[in-house]
Design a protein that fits this description.
Helix content is 84%, strand content 0%. By secondary structure, the chain is an all-alpha fold. Helix 1 crosses helix 2, helix 2 crosses helix 8 and helix 8 runs parallel beside helix 9. The chain is elongated, with a radius of gyration of 21 Å. The termini are far apart. 32% of the residues are buried.
Protein backbone atom coordinates (compact mmCIF):
# COMPACT_ATOMS: atom_id res chain seq x y z
CA UNK A 1 0.00 0.00 0.00
CA UNK A 2 2.77 2.41 1.00
CA UNK A 3 4.80 1.80 -2.17
CA UNK A 4 1.70 2.06 -4.36
CA UNK A 5 0.68 5.41 -2.83
CA UNK A 6 4.16 6.84 -3.20
CA UNK A 7 4.37 5.67 -6.81
CA UNK A 8 0.98 7.21 -7.57
CA UNK A 9 2.08 10.47 -5.95
CA UNK A 10 5.23 10.59 -8.09
CA UNK A 11 3.20 10.05 -11.25
CA UNK A 12 0.74 12.73 -10.16
CA UNK A 13 3.54 15.26 -9.57
CA UNK A 14 5.19 14.38 -12.90
CA UNK A 15 1.95 15.13 -14.76
CA UNK A 16 1.59 18.49 -13.02
CA UNK A 17 5.24 19.34 -13.74
CA UNK A 18 4.67 18.66 -17.43
CA UNK A 19 1.63 20.96 -17.43
CA UNK A 20 2.81 23.84 -15.25
CA UNK A 21 6.57 23.48 -14.74
CA UNK A 22 7.83 24.63 -11.33
CA UNK A 23 6.07 27.97 -11.09
CA UNK A 24 3.18 29.19 -8.94
CA UNK A 25 0.67 27.48 -11.22
CA UNK A 26 2.19 24.10 -10.35
CA UNK A 27 2.07 24.79 -6.61
CA UNK A 28 -1.53 26.00 -6.70
CA UNK A 29 -2.78 23.20 -8.96
CA UNK A 30 -1.06 20.58 -6.81
CA UNK A 31 -2.46 22.11 -3.62
CA UNK A 32 -5.96 22.38 -5.09
CA UNK A 33 -6.03 18.80 -6.40
CA UNK A 34 -4.72 17.46 -3.09
CA UNK A 35 -7.41 19.41 -1.24
CA UNK A 36 -10.12 18.11 -3.59
CA UNK A 37 -8.77 14.58 -3.10
CA UNK A 38 -8.93 14.88 0.68
CA UNK A 39 -12.35 16.54 0.77
CA UNK A 40 -13.92 14.20 -1.79
CA UNK A 41 -12.93 10.94 -0.11
CA UNK A 42 -13.43 12.24 3.43
CA UNK A 43 -16.95 13.39 2.51
CA UNK A 44 -17.64 10.02 0.88
CA UNK A 45 -16.58 8.08 3.98
CA UNK A 46 -18.46 10.54 6.19
CA UNK A 47 -21.70 9.92 4.27
CA UNK A 48 -21.22 6.13 4.13
CA UNK A 49 -20.73 5.86 7.89
CA UNK A 50 -22.56 8.98 9.04
CA UNK A 51 -25.90 8.22 7.38
CA UNK A 52 -26.50 4.90 9.20
CA UNK A 53 -25.32 6.58 12.40
CA UNK A 54 -27.71 9.48 11.89
CA UNK A 55 -30.59 7.10 11.18
CA UNK A 56 -29.85 5.17 14.38
CA UNK A 57 -29.74 8.38 16.39
CA UNK A 58 -33.10 9.46 14.96
CA UNK A 59 -35.10 6.23 15.16
CA UNK A 60 -33.93 5.16 18.64
CA UNK A 61 -35.18 8.29 20.37
CA UNK A 62 -37.89 7.57 22.93
CA UNK A 63 -40.60 9.14 20.74
CA UNK A 64 -39.49 7.57 17.45
CA UNK A 65 -40.31 4.38 15.55
CA UNK A 66 -37.77 2.13 17.32
CA UNK A 67 -37.34 3.61 20.79
CA UNK A 68 -34.21 2.54 22.66
CA UNK A 69 -33.41 5.38 25.08
CA UNK A 70 -30.36 3.75 26.71
CA UNK A 71 -28.80 2.82 23.37
CA UNK A 72 -29.56 6.31 22.05
CA UNK A 73 -27.87 7.96 25.02
CA UNK A 74 -24.76 5.79 24.75
CA UNK A 75 -24.49 6.31 21.00
CA UNK A 76 -25.11 10.03 21.37
CA UNK A 77 -22.44 10.24 24.06
CA UNK A 78 -19.88 8.54 21.79
CA UNK A 79 -20.76 10.86 18.90
CA UNK A 80 -20.50 13.94 21.11
CA UNK A 81 -17.20 12.75 22.56
CA UNK A 82 -15.59 12.43 19.12
CA UNK A 83 -17.07 15.77 18.03
CA UNK A 84 -15.59 17.47 21.10
CA UNK A 85 -12.02 16.70 20.02
CA UNK A 86 -10.27 19.75 18.52
CA UNK A 87 -9.26 18.70 15.02
CA UNK A 88 -5.57 19.50 15.49
CA UNK A 89 -5.50 17.24 18.57
CA UNK A 90 -7.42 14.52 16.74
CA UNK A 91 -5.07 14.44 13.76
CA UNK A 92 -2.02 14.26 16.05
CA UNK A 93 -3.59 11.39 18.00
CA UNK A 94 -4.34 9.52 14.77
CA UNK A 95 -0.88 9.88 13.21
CA UNK A 96 0.37 6.52 14.60
CA UNK A 97 -2.89 4.84 13.53
CA UNK A 98 -2.51 6.19 9.99
CA UNK A 99 1.06 4.93 9.88
CA UNK A 100 0.00 1.46 10.98
CA UNK A 101 -2.95 1.31 8.58
CA UNK A 102 -1.47 2.61 5.32
CA UNK A 103 2.25 2.76 6.09
CA UNK A 104 2.51 6.56 6.16
CA UNK A 105 1.55 9.18 8.73
CA UNK A 106 1.89 12.27 6.54
CA UNK A 107 0.46 13.29 3.19
CA UNK A 108 -3.03 13.69 1.80
CA UNK A 109 -3.98 10.01 2.04
CA UNK A 110 -3.02 9.84 5.71
CA UNK A 111 -5.00 13.02 6.39
CA UNK A 112 -8.16 11.43 4.95
CA UNK A 113 -8.35 9.10 7.96
CA UNK A 114 -8.43 11.95 10.47
CA UNK A 115 -10.72 14.04 8.27
CA UNK A 116 -13.19 11.18 7.94
CA UNK A 117 -13.26 10.44 11.66
CA UNK A 118 -13.82 14.12 12.40
CA UNK A 119 -16.58 14.41 9.80
CA UNK A 120 -18.57 11.25 10.59
CA UNK A 121 -20.07 12.38 13.92
CA UNK A 122 -20.56 15.90 12.58
CA UNK A 123 -22.58 14.81 9.56
CA UNK A 124 -24.39 12.14 11.61
CA UNK A 125 -25.86 14.87 13.82
CA UNK A 126 -26.85 16.87 10.73
CA UNK A 127 -28.53 13.80 9.24
CA UNK A 128 -30.29 13.15 12.53
CA UNK A 129 -31.62 16.71 12.56
CA UNK A 130 -32.84 16.34 8.97
CA UNK A 131 -34.71 13.13 9.79
CA UNK A 132 -36.30 14.67 12.86
CA UNK A 133 -37.83 17.36 10.64
CA UNK A 134 -40.04 14.79 8.91
CA UNK A 135 -43.62 15.49 10.12
CA UNK A 136 -44.82 13.12 12.84
CA UNK A 137 -48.23 12.91 11.18
CA UNK A 138 -46.64 11.51 8.02
CA UNK A 139 -44.73 8.88 10.01
CA UNK A 140 -47.85 7.88 11.94
CA UNK A 141 -49.87 7.66 8.73
CA UNK A 142 -47.25 5.35 7.22
CA UNK A 143 -47.26 3.21 10.37
CA UNK A 144 -51.06 2.97 10.32
CA UNK A 145 -50.86 1.39 6.87
CA UNK A 146 -48.80 -1.44 8.33
CA UNK A 147 -45.47 -0.36 6.87
CA UNK A 148 -42.32 -1.93 8.29
CA UNK A 149 -39.67 0.14 10.04
CA UNK A 150 -37.42 -0.25 7.00
CA UNK A 151 -40.15 1.18 4.75
CA UNK A 152 -40.71 4.06 7.16
CA UNK A 153 -36.99 4.85 7.20
CA UNK A 154 -36.94 4.90 3.38
CA UNK A 155 -39.91 7.26 3.43
CA UNK A 156 -38.18 9.54 5.95
CA UNK A 157 -35.00 9.63 3.88
CA UNK A 158 -37.00 10.43 0.75
CA UNK A 159 -38.88 13.24 2.49
CA UNK A 160 -35.77 14.96 3.79
CA UNK A 161 -33.51 14.59 0.73
CA UNK A 162 -32.97 18.37 0.40
CA UNK A 163 -31.90 18.60 4.05
CA UNK A 164 -29.60 15.59 3.63
CA UNK A 165 -28.00 17.19 0.57
CA UNK A 166 -27.56 20.43 2.47
CA UNK A 167 -25.87 18.51 5.30
CA UNK A 168 -23.38 17.07 2.81
CA UNK A 169 -22.64 20.57 1.48
CA UNK A 170 -22.07 21.95 4.99
CA UNK A 171 -19.80 19.02 5.84
CA UNK A 172 -17.81 19.38 2.60
CA UNK A 173 -17.18 23.05 3.32
CA UNK A 174 -16.11 22.21 6.86
CA UNK A 175 -13.74 19.60 5.44
CA UNK A 176 -12.07 22.26 3.28
CA UNK A 177 -11.25 24.11 6.50
CA UNK A 178 -10.16 20.93 8.26
CA UNK A 179 -7.94 20.00 5.31
CA UNK A 180 -6.19 23.35 5.63
CA UNK A 181 -5.40 22.54 9.26
CA UNK A 182 -4.22 19.08 8.23
CA UNK A 183 -1.74 20.78 5.90
CA UNK A 184 0.04 22.31 8.87
CA UNK A 185 1.07 18.84 10.08
CA UNK A 186 2.06 17.56 6.65
CA UNK A 187 -1.34 16.72 5.21
CA UNK A 188 -0.69 18.48 1.91
CA UNK A 189 -3.19 20.59 0.03
CA UNK A 190 -3.74 24.34 0.00
CA UNK A 191 -3.26 24.55 3.76
CA UNK A 192 0.21 23.04 3.49
CA UNK A 193 1.02 25.40 0.61
CA UNK A 194 -0.16 28.46 2.53
CA UNK A 195 1.66 27.53 5.74
CA UNK A 196 4.89 25.90 4.58
CA UNK A 197 5.68 28.01 1.52
CA UNK A 198 3.56 31.10 2.00
CA UNK A 199 4.05 31.67 5.74
CA UNK A 200 7.23 29.86 6.78
CA UNK A 201 9.16 30.74 3.61
CA UNK A 202 7.94 34.36 3.67
CA UNK A 203 6.23 34.30 0.29
CA UNK A 204 3.10 36.42 0.78
CA UNK A 205 2.06 36.04 -2.86
CA UNK A 206 1.80 32.25 -2.44
CA UNK A 207 -0.14 32.71 0.80
CA UNK A 208 -2.48 35.20 -0.87
CA UNK A 209 -3.23 33.02 -3.89
CA UNK A 210 -3.71 29.92 -1.71
CA UNK A 211 -6.32 31.81 0.32
CA UNK A 212 -8.05 33.08 -2.83
CA UNK A 213 -8.21 29.60 -4.37
CA UNK A 214 -9.60 28.21 -1.10
CA UNK A 215 -12.29 30.90 -1.02
CA UNK A 216 -13.25 30.20 -4.64
CA UNK A 217 -13.42 26.47 -3.90
CA UNK A 218 -15.77 27.05 -0.94
CA UNK A 219 -17.99 29.31 -3.03
CA UNK A 220 -18.18 26.71 -5.81
CA UNK A 221 -19.12 23.96 -3.36
CA UNK A 222 -21.79 26.15 -1.76
CA UNK A 223 -23.23 27.31 -5.09
CA UNK A 224 -23.31 23.79 -6.51
CA UNK A 225 -24.89 22.51 -3.31
CA UNK A 226 -27.55 25.22 -3.31
CA UNK A 227 -28.40 24.34 -6.92
CA UNK A 228 -28.76 20.63 -6.10
CA UNK A 229 -30.88 21.37 -3.01
CA UNK A 230 -33.12 23.63 -5.10
CA UNK A 231 -33.67 20.84 -7.65
CA UNK A 232 -34.45 18.31 -4.92
CA UNK A 233 -36.98 20.65 -3.33
CA UNK A 234 -38.66 21.26 -6.67
CA UNK A 235 -38.97 17.51 -7.32
CA UNK A 236 -40.38 16.52 -3.92
Amino acid sequence: MKDFLRSANREFEAILHSLFGNDLGYLLSKGLLETLYMVQFSALFAVLFGLPLGVLLAITRKDSIKPAPLFNKILGWIVNMVRSFPFMVLILVLLPFSGALIGMSTGSTAAIIALSIAAIPFIARLFEGALLEVPKDLIEATQSMGASNFTIIKMMLSECKPALANAIVITSISLVGYSAMAGIVGGGGLGDLAYRIGFQSFKPDVLFYAVIVTMILVQLIQSSGDFIVKILRANR
